[in-house]
Specification:
This protein has one domain: Rossmann fold (3-Layer(aba) Sandwich). The chain contains 8 helices and 9 strands.
Length: 227
């Protein structure tokens, strides 16, 4: 799939790529389904600006992992930000430390050497990011707390942010903002050694400035509408 399609606009509160038309929303839904169908693959699914699985191109630079495919709708915010905003291929993988710890160890210890940053989503006790940080002392780990259960993500946030000395996890906000910010944070890590990604980060920042300017241009009309 070409990077220019589907096109994305930004929401009022978060810089989250959203499809503009019903056909584009359908395309995003089908992509979500494609990833879910392929997630039983032992080594995860490659996703890039060109497509998913066999359609994807390039070597993954970021691992996007989660404890269950129920986390996928949230983490598609990170996946789509990585590939559409910054052109970064990523590997999507399910890892559950509570249901299959041995597989987690095997997957994380045998990641492709191209992977330089790990984004891990978890809810509740949220052990996944911390376990990965311990397994891979050589890679930065970014945690995304999921809004889940009785405490609505507060438990996951505290679990991730209270990692002991020596196994840091860079913790983002709870929910969608955290998923998007995790992708931006990963892109900034990669941009240190990649001028092309650095340039895309600057372009992304300019788009946000343009959005604010456009809101000011229509502010008077909105004030009249609200009065």
């Amino acid at each position: 799939m070409d990077r220019s399609h589907p096109e994305f606009s930004e929401s009022a509160y978060y810089d989250i790529p959203l499809a503009k038309s019903m056909s584009e929303k359908y395309t995003m839904l089908k992509e979500d389904e494609c990833i879910q169908a392929a997630l039983s693959n032992e080594h995860g699914v490659l996703v890039s600006p060109e497509g998913i699985g066999n359609e994807a191109k390039g070597a993954p630079k970021v691992l996007v992992t989660m404890g269950s495919d129920s986390d996928l709708p949230l983490m598609m915010k990170a996946v789509n930000t990585l590939r559409y905003e910054f052109g970064i291929p990523c590997l999507v993988q399910i890892n559950s430390v509570h249901r299959d710890l041995r597989s987690v160890v095997k997957h994380i210890e045998n990641l492709p050497t191209s992977v330089q940053v790990i984004i891990a989503c978890a809810g509740g006790a949220a052990h996944l990011p911390g376990n990965i940080a311990d397994l891979r002392a050589d890679l930065p780990v970014i945690g995304v707390p999921r809004d889940l259960g009785a405490l609505k993500g507060i438990d996951a946030l505290l679990s991730m942010v209270q990692m002991p000395e020596g196994a840091p996890v860079a913790v983002m906000a709870i929910g969608e903002a955290g998923a998007v910010n995790a992708a931006i944070h990963a892109a900034k890590e990669l941009a240190i050694a990649d001028p092309a990604i650095k340039e895309r980060l600057m372009t992304y920042a300019e788009k946000r400035k343009v959005r604010v300017a456009s809101q000011n241009q229509t502010l008077e009309k909105k004030l009249h509408d609200c009065s």
